[in-house]
Amino acid sequence: MYFCYVDESGDCGLFDPAKPDKTGSPYFILSALIVPADKWKFSLDVLKSFRKQIAAQAYLPYDIEFHCAEMIDPHKIKEYTQISVKDRWMLIEKFAETIGQHKPFSIITVVIDKTKSGLNPDEYLTTVITKLYQAFDQFLKNENQNGILLFDRANEKVIHTHVRKLLGTGSSGVTIPGVRIGWVIEDPIFRVSADSIFIQAADVIAYTLKEQEFPQGSRRKLQADRIFNRKLRGSCFVSQIADEDGIIRV
Question: What structural domains does the chain harbor?
Answer without folding.
Answer: 2-39+102-249 (3.30.420)
